[in-house]
Structures are given as structure tokens and as C-alpha cells.
Amino acid sequence: MKIIKKISYLFFTIILSSPIFSSTSFAEKLPALPVTLKNGTGVINQNIIYIGLGSTGNSWYKLDLNENKKKWEKIADFPGTPRDQAIAIKLNNNIYIFGGAGKENIESETISSLTDVYRYSPSEDKWEKIDTSSPYGLVGHAGVSISTNKAIILGGVNKQIFDKYFINLNHAKNNSSIKSKVINDYFNKPIEGYFFNRVILTYNADNNQWGSLGTIPFNGTAGSSLVNDNNSITLINGELKPGLRTSEIQTAILENNQLQWNTTVQKLPPPSPEQQQDGLAGAFAGYSAHTLLVAGGANFPGSQAKYSQKHYFAHQDLDKKWHKEIYGLIDNQWKVIGELPIPLGYGITIEHGNSLYLIGGETTKGEAVNSVITLTLKDKELIIN
Questions:
Q1: pLDDT by residue (tens digit) across 113-134?
Q2: Checking CA distances to 254, which of 212, 314, 342, 355 falls within 20 to 30 Å?
């Protein structure tokens, strides 16, 4: 085995291995995607990974982890309009797609916060549109299953404000001064002016019904990561408004069909002592060895400082930064425990066994990638391959 780098910590040893690391020793290295993918979505069902949408358009692919020789295979195309930032959730061994940012129909001139729902049957390799609409537009939302038939969805942008921005941009496309005003008017508002969703939505696949578990006791977010472990749900960072992230990590326990939010709020530490933590959007997140890991994501360093000075267009003139830090919740403390091979965000996280597969994403300047990175904790070691 070829070792590139080894970093020792008090409780952890991080080993970054080369792509030829033995798959039988720790975690299996999966083949790269046949296409580059960012802002897509994916899910695992019966040991088969399904991914698609985003920069792939309507395309979908699967990889069967039960097979000895792993390969990505094309499956039926998604029948709706192409979209970014949809979410996929497994319910009743089918795959449900909720919302996204895309055109309402092929005649539409601008993108919208979509409310539609689609279902994919793996046994039939068939998609169908479900006769329902979400109560709110779904862009920047996050969701997980909380039972075999029920999903919970948190956060997301306000549909009316989001849609109106792109309508105004389209009207001003031939007038640079009006376009600049539209952009400034949209971004130059405080957090409260965006009305990000705070309603805790539920969806029941058995009866095709939407419900609510009340509202979250904090600001709504977009682009957060959401994970669950038994009855514990964790919402990680995300945007408080366009261009401004939070470093807060909110946790709740699902009891008696209600979410009981922890009053003690954790925060990701700065990536290094000389840096401020401006929070992340589009980060990878999941559990390995019952340890929550957060990796990558992007932000605008300096935006929190500007916003605190009431510069509400907080990311104006700031460069967007993609990150490669890997954080682990160790002994109830967040620590930087490793680095991705490259800065990366806005990809897909798949949990399988003791491993996380980080699929696709975008790197610096928003370039889409086709990589599949495996993170595995084993015997107090983080293996990256």
C-alpha cells in the first residue's frame, strides 16, 4: 500500500491513501462517474446507488454495490424539466424527487422554485410524476427519510422572492444598468428580508399527503446538509441569505412525531487559527463508525464580518472559496481531522456500511467533477481513497 501522507492526532490518525489503496483492507474505491456532475442528487436503495440531475440534465445512473465488478450504468431518463438542487429520498423502496431549481415547463423563460414530485421504480426502471405539489417551493431544501414511508424536509428559499428575481433579471437582460439594480436590490437585504422556509414539512408516501411538524426555532437556511441517525436529526450550516452562510449546527430528537431541538447550538471551528469560520453551503455530510463527518463546501470568506457591519450585500466583491477540510465530531467536539484531495462542494453524499461516498460536485470556479471519494473511519483512522 502506498501511503501519501500520515497525520497524527491525540485520538485519531488520518491516512490519505493513493487511488490504488486496497479495497479489501478498509473501504472500496468506486469508479469515477461517466459524466461530470454538480448540483445533482442521489440516494442508495438495496445497496444500489442512484444519481442524476444537476449538470447531467435529465440523465440518471446507477451503480450496484452487490456486483463484484462495480460500474456505472445508464437508467431511464428523468421525465420532468432539468433542474439543479432537487433532493432524492428513498421511500417504500422507491426513489422520490422533490422540487429543485428549473423551468416550470419547456415554454418558461426563467427558472423557478419547483413544487413537483416524481417517483422512480427501480424494479421497473420507470419514472412517473406524482399528483401532488409541495406546499412551498423547494430550492435549497434538505430532506431525509424518518421511516420507510415518511420524509421530513427542512429549509429552502422563498418561492415568490426567488422566482421574481429571475423574472426581473430576464426583463432587464438587455439593459445593464437596470440589471445591476435588480441584482443589488435582491442581494442588499438583511436575513429577514428573504423569508427562507422555517416550516418543518413532512411527506407520507403511503397516502401522498403533506404535513407539518411546526416551525424551526431558528432562521431558515438554504444549501444546508441534513443527516439522521436513528431518531437524531442534524442540520449543518447553510445560507441564511444569498451569499451569507452560518457556522451553526442544529440538532433535534424526533419523539412522538415532534422534533425537540437542542438548546445548545454547536458551531464548526475555523479551518485554521488565523481564519474566521464563515460557515458552509453545499458540504458533504454523513456518518462513519457512528461519527458525524462534514467535508468540503463553499463560502465567501469575510462575508460574516461585512454583514455584522450592516453591509447586507455581504458577499459583494468577495471571492467564493471551495474548501477541502474534513471535520469530525470527536468526543462531542468538532475538529479538523483531514482534507479532501481537492476543494469540493455541491456533490452527493451516500452512506453505505462504514463508509461515505462523496460523488461528483464542483471545485474552484464552479467546475464540475466526475470523482467518487470514499471516507471511512476504522480503528480510529480516517481513510480517504
A1: 999 999 999 999 999 999 999 9
A2: 355
Active site residue 239: yes
SS (H, E, C) the chain: CCEEEEEECCCCEEEEECCCCCCCCCCCCCCCCCCCECCCEEEEECCEEEEECHHHCCCEEEEECCCCCCCEEECCCCCCCCEECCEEEEECCEEEEECCEECCCCCCCCCEECCCEEEEECCCCEEEECCCCCCCCCCCCEEEECCCCEEEEECCCCHHHHHHHHHHHHHCCCCHHHHHHHHHHHHCCCHHHCCCCCEEEEEECCCCEEEEEEECCCCCCECCEEEEECCEEEEECCEEECCEECCEEEEEEEECCEEEECCCCEECCCCCCCCCCCCCECCEEEEECCEEEEECCEECCCHHHHHHCCCCCCCCCCCCEECCEEEEEECCEEEEEEECCCCCECCEEEEECCEEEEECCEEHHHEEECCEEEEEEECCEEEEC
Q: Which one from 239, 248, 325, 339 is the annotated catalytic residue?
A: 239
